[in-house]
Amino acid sequence: MTGFDAPDAALRGASYLIPVDNVAALMRHAGNLLERARKAGVECNLRWRLEPQPQVLRDGDLHQWVTILSRPPAVRGWSLAARYDIDPLGMTAAVPRTVPGGELPRRYWTLGDPVCEHCNTVRDRRAVFLLSHADGRHLLVGRTCLRAFLDHPDPDRLATLFDSLVPDDLAGRYAFRDPAAPGYGGGYLDAVEELAWTAGIVARYGWRSVARSDADHAATASRLAFLMNRPNPKLAALWHAERTACAPTADHYAAARRTIELVRAAPPDSEYLVKLKAIAAAPAVHVRDRALWCSAITLHIRWNAKRLERDAAAGAPPIETGRQVVQGRILKLDIRTCRNFCREVMTVQDGHGRKFWGTQPRFLHHAKEGDDVAFRADVEPSPDNPAFAFFKRPTRVPKAA
Ligand SMILES: [Zn+2]
Predict the structure, then answer these.
(1) Per-residue CA distances from 142 to 97, 114, 204, 213, 289 (Å)
(2) What confidence category does residue 211 fall into, taking pLDDT thresholds of 50, 70 and 90?
């Protein structure tokens, strides 16, 4: 049986602040892992302890301190110490995930193009493991070379087990976020500063919503802003270049202040805006409201887009009354219900940025948003906006002979 050199060696551990909702999943995960280890004939140890500290409200979720104690399989003094993940910024570096409580020598904090220190071959960043020896030595080893160190008939299986031993996002992402740490300002952050950083990130990467970030396996704009502003000391080198590139300029501070004006002026017609307006009333924002607060920058993005559109439309010739060809792109399809009658409507925007609104013609039944269309119709400009018109009685444009 492959196991530990010293089965009674102390477990090493670290405490993590994790969402209460994830605690049950973490325990299930540990139970499954131990079962898989037993089947593989590996003596592996993983324990957890719910700490008695009170639960903490953060980012709108209740969090619980959990200590994870583990002892990875070790053979002849060697044990697994860390694996590497592609970093959340998508740069050409990798971030180590260490066994709870493990400490890494500085040169292993990030990886460029890793070389297996056993066979001297360049390896994929996701296929290397860091081994540590009881005497303090460390060695970076490719997955296929693990056999030389871990005497198990299936070292790959061992490595897979080890992968799960390292706490994943369930626990890992909250490991370094301690509001008691210096730089947190007692849990309160400068409201303008936070938005200015978000504006800087958005200028470089575009807005990343939670949904889009999940799909791309990337960080949200507000999470990036947080990381940039307070780099994890272990990863400071990695973030330095990005930090410099995203540091807010005078324009970004102006965007932040403009956003606050927009929030204050916005009507409180949704729960979201009511919350934003409450935050905007004070110069500081609490850490738990940070993500919500940073999302206010989207108001500025929309306001900017509207202004650009207005500027473009202002230079366009006014729409004339009468029957004419409407040619442009479908901006929006919608359904309007009136009593028991419902109709499909569409907004078409032409090359001048002018908009035309009316019932979707039957012959364009299959058209989608974003399609280019042309039809003939009776057009009546809106009395208060010369760049907006209503159309009626649309017909096909005869194909040019
Ligand atoms: Zn190798």
Answers:
(1) 16, 9, 35, 30, 42
(2) confident
CATH no. for residue 349?
A: 2.40.50.140
**Ligand 1 is a single-atom ion; what residues have CB below 5 A from it?**
116, 118-119, 142, 145
Q: What angle do CA 228, 233, 238 make, to 5 degrees?
A: 60
Distance 165 CA to ligand 1 centre (A): 22
Spatial contact of 329 and 349, defined as CB atoms under 8 Å apart: yes
Distance 302 CA to ligand 1 centre (A): 52
The whole-number average pLDDT for the span 33-49 is: 75
Q: Say how many CA atoms lie within 13 Å of 5 toward its Cβ.
A: 10
Nearest one of 230, 224, 296, 234 to 263, comparing CA atoms: 296
Same domain, 363 and 293: no
Mean of per-residue pLDDT scores for the chain:
77
Q: Tell me if the pTM is above 0.85.
A: no
- The dihedrals phi and psi of 248, each to the nearest 5 degrees, come to -65, 140
Taking only the tens place, the pLDDT of each residue in 125-177 is 777 888 888 888 999 998 888 888 776 677 677 777 766 666 554 444 444 33
Residues spanned by the domain of 167: 12-172
